[in-house]
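Researcher: Checking consistency across runs. Here is DIS3-like exonuclease 2 again:
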Amino acid sequence: MAAQGFSTTNLDRESDIPKNEISHLGKITDFKNHHITPEHSKSRKSKFKSDYLIFPKNRYEPHLDLSLADRLVHKGSLFRATLRINKSDPCHEAYATISYLSSNTATSDVFPNDFISPYDDIFIFGPRLRNRAFNGDTVIIKIYPNDVAKNIHTAYKKYKSKSTSPHNNNDDDFANNDPALSFTDTFVELNTDDFIEDPDWKLYGQVVSIVPNPYDHKLFACFYSSQSNDELYHIFSSIDSTAPAFRISHKDFSEFVQKHKINDLTKIVFILKYIVWDIDSMCPTGSIVEFKVIKNKRDSENLLLLYRNSIFNNPFPKYIIDTLPSDTFEIPEAEINSRADLRSQTVFTIDPASAKDLDDALSIHKLPGGNYIVSVHIADVSYFVKPNSKLDNLARQLATTVYLVDYNIPMLPNVLSGNLCSLLPGKDRLTFSVTWNISENGEIMDYWISKSIINSTLKETQPDAIRKKDRMQIS
């Protein structure tokens, strides 16, 4: 019996998903799986016979309207999940981990087995069933009933046995024949129970909608790969093995290269922003946000890590820098008089040796009666960064300073993070101080919080502090 194509018509009427529905899978080429060496050469033609378009009969399914999808999730007909693409086989293998399970699922008749639980992994076989979802996306999925899933299972087992064959060229095979197509051509009449008892049996599903994430800017670090056969697009391969290739229009790419006078693409990583993924396209369309010249593999890996998490190492804009005090800023006398003056106390910082933004300090001294006064001093950034100012709004977006192996990306401009708000030795600095009066037995007798001014005595490193702790005399 021929498989029936998945249709959203019935879903639009909010009827349950028929148990015998299944999608026709298309012959989809995933460019990123070919690892083309970047070349700035127009003579390098794409090796893909179908280039970037999918034959009409093999197009992706339109995504289900999200409001309808949500209703069907609460009804127990569909499931909300998080997509994870297998880095070892990103073309074929992905899992959707169920993140929400409606209480109505127990009375629904659409799921294939007698049990589906939160955090179950639903296997998504092939790019078309993945339906243009990216790794990490929150997706809405349908789960195939067993009479359909057994055919996907057969196709998957066939693919796995073929892909492990020493005579099989996986790239070329997939470019010309999507192995998942086989289960849409013929339904085999086999005992479903036999398949479920197979140790390789999985729950099989398909992405029918993608839940938007306003915090995911979908930025990708990519190398240039090739120009499409019709010369209308340029293809870029992502450094992230779970991400697809991208296409950029020839016009946009040419204008960008000319504007930035780029002559050698082999040392360039392009930062692409996802725009759209058409149902008839093998790869999504993107736009170039910026580019970085890389010197080594670590540079490209850092870029991938940063941009996948929407972290941008861009200079602070001039209109913000112009509003900041200079490095020679001196605290006004009126401000000093309004604060607790702790500059005469012995204050020290403990940080990694390479740290420049020293944002907290400690002090401790013993009272004549035996109690201790212990204080923690935090840099008073609020003196320089006013609520809802342009710098405040930008800092909210950055959220934190990001530390990499050999450099960091500051949340605030260096004049603040590395100087005026850094509790450097020998420098007067504005702080908030929390102070405790602690007994010899460790009991807190009193505490107070105050705006203060300190002058750090010592920048201590963490290893040195550990070595000295047993010898340290508190005075």
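Researcher: Does this match what you'd expect to see?
Model: One thing to look at in this run: The chain has 14 helices and 19 strands.
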